[in-house]
Structure formats: structure tokens, C-alpha cells
Design brief:
This protein has 297 residues and is mainly α. The protein has one domain: 2-methylcitrate dehydratase PrpD. GO terms for molecular function: 4 iron, 4 sulfur cluster binding; L-serine ammonia-lyase activity; metal ion binding. Its EC number is 4.3.1.17. Its cofactor is [4Fe-4S] cluster. Pfam families: SDH_alpha.
Length: 297
């Protein structure tokens, strides 16, 4: 890749008169040795998987094997359809993000964006906005390339793994990727997209990773739902002209600093946070007893 930082990415886009998605497609093709058409088809297939996961989460039984999660997406979706929602269109993004995360928890097929623990945010944002604006699948595929470029920069300068940098790394990165890509999908320029990433990331700095029972369910799934709404807000701010006072590349460095300083108990070990509340410990004991219970012959 010819860029390592988001300011470099935006400058390349400006110099070559390309969107972030277009530039990333060209860069990916050059790196892989495959044609841009082949790379585009591959990414389009990923988007199909995302849309299928949304649909599955809204229509099928997504109760997880642990019993800790499932069907909340359908509850939110039904509420959105039956009552005046406080969130309006953002309520759809929230429901769709929950849907994909519940498909993941119930061992369904998803695309890790950038991880399985944050897999609902980009599909939630993308599918809800595609429905709202009538965008084509081709337009959405370029959006995924834009999200990929943002994720590439974050991964190479900070973290995308909760085990390394806490939930700010997984959920935060996904929110930033979704916000920047959505800004571009809505007609924003690369500089505005980069500001959207910074605005999004600043809102999640310090978020710990504390999976109850060691499973990617509680509180991971609801964080995907909230994350989708945050991404929409960050994109709107950037498109309105709000700028990240701290340059986004510096925000990414702060994510690295904060994640490195985070105690191990707050980095996906289930050793702290919500996992170590009385209820969290009780859930772990219950799960442990279920795993050790002898099977009936």
C-alpha cells in the first residue's frame, strides 16, 4: 500500500482525483496481483454475506448455545415497526447490527469487520442506509473498500483486537470504519471521511473488553448496536462540517497508548469489568456446570 496513515490516504485521493474506495480497490489489486474486477467481485460477495446475516438475524432463531443471547434484534425491529422510535432510521441500523452479532453468537456465517466481535456495525450501518437511500450494491461495495482502507491504517498503527487493546480496538475501529465509509457514500470528500473516523474513535477511547463468561455475547452484542448509531452520528457531524480538533492519525496513536496501558483484566480475559460482577460470575459458574455435566446416554 502507498499509504500508512489517513492523512497520506486523503492526500493520495486528492492528488489522483479518486475516492477512498476507488483508491483502495486499485491498491488492493496491485498488492494481490489480481485484476480490479476480480477484487471487486470478491468484495461484493462479502457484502452479500453481510446482507444475508442481517436477514437471518431478523427472521431466524438466533438463540446462542449458551442461552445468553438471541432474538434481541427481532425485538428491536418489531418495536421500530410498531411504535414511534426515539432513533428513527438509526433504529434500523441498531437492529441490523444486533442481528448480525446474534448470527455470529449462534455460529452463523458473518464477515469479520474487522473482527467477529464487531461484525455487526458495518452491516448495520450499510444495509440500513442502502434501504433508506436506494443505493446500489456496487455503491456499497466501494464503501466496503473505503472501510477496508480505514481499517488497514488503524490495524497498522494501533489495534483491532480486543485482546491487545480492549473493546476500543474492536468496536471503536469498526465504528470508525463505518463512519468514514458512510461519509464517503453520502458524498463527502476524503478529508471529511477522515474527520468522521477521528470523531468516532474519540468517543470510544478507553472502552474495555470484558466478555461475560468469556463469550462474545454480553456485552459485545449490544455494543455493536450502539456502535452502529455512533457511526451514523459521526458521519453526520463530519458532513455538517464538524472537524476532529485532534488529527485522526493522532487519535489512532492515542488508542495505541491507551490500549497498551490497559490492565490485562480489561483486555478480553474476562478478568474484570462486567465479567467480574456478581451476576457475571454466576453466569460463568452456570456455564461451567453445563459444560461439565455428563451427557445422557
Amino acid at each position: 500500500m502507498r499509504f500508512r496513515h489517513l492523512n497520506e490516504l486523503a492526500r493520495l485521493c486528492a492528488d489522483e482525483g479518486m475516492s477512498i474506495g476507488e483508491l483502495m480497490l486499485a491498491e488492493q489489486a496491485a498488492e494481490s496481483g489480481q485484476s480490479p474486477e476480480e477484487e471487486f467481485v470478491k468484495m461484493a460477495d462479502y457484502y452479500t454475506v453481510m446482507k444475508d446475516a442481517v436477514q437471518r438475524g431478523l427472521t431466524e432463531d438466533t438463540t446462542s448455545r449458551s442461552g445468553l443471547s438471541g432474538l434481541d434484534a427481532q425485538r428491536v425491529d418489531a418495536y421500530n415497526k410498531s411504535f414511534p422510535s426515539n432513533l428513527g432510521v438509526a433504529g434500523d441500523a441498531m437492529a441490523y447490527a444486533l442481528a448480525v452479532s446474534e448470527v455470529n453468537a449462534s455460529m452463523g456465517r458473518i464477515i469479520a469487520t474487522p473482527t467477529a466481535g464487531s461484525c455487526g456495525i458495518i452491516p448495520g450501518v450499510f444495509v440500513s442506509c442502502q434501504e433508506r437511500y436506494g443505493w446500489s450494491n456496487e455503491h456499497m461495495t466501494y464503501g466496503l473498500f473505503a472501510a477496508g482502507a480505514i481499517g488497514y491504517v488503524i490495524a497498522n498503527n494501533s489495534f483491532v483486537s480486543g485482546a491487545e487493546g480492549g473493546c476500543q480496538a474492536e468496536i471503536g475501529s469498526a465504528i470508525g470504519m463505518a463512519a468514514g465509509a458512510l461519509t464517503e457514500l453520502q458524498g463527502g470528500n476524503p478529508a471529511q471521511a477522515v474527520h468522521a473516523v477521528g470523531l468516532a474513535l474519540k468517543n470510544t477511547l478507553g472502552l474495555i473488553c470484558d466478555p461475560v463468561g468469556g463469550l462474545v455475547e454480553v456485552p459485545c452484542i449490544v455494543r455493536n448496536g450502539f456502535g452502529a448509531v455512533t457511526a451514523l452520528a459521526a458521519a453526520d457531524m463530519a458532513l455538517a462540517g464538524v472537524r476532529s480538533a485532534i488529527p485522526t492519525d493522532e487519535v489512532i496513536q492515542v488508542m495505541l497508548e491507551v490500549g497498551s496501558a490497559m490492565p490485562d483484566k480489561h483486555r478480553e480475559t474476562a478478568g474484570g469489568g462486567l465479567a467480574q460482577t456478581p451476576t457475571g460470575k454466576a453466569i460463568l459458574r452456570n456455564l461451567s456446570s453445563l459444560r461439565t455435566k455428563p451427557k445422557k446416554s
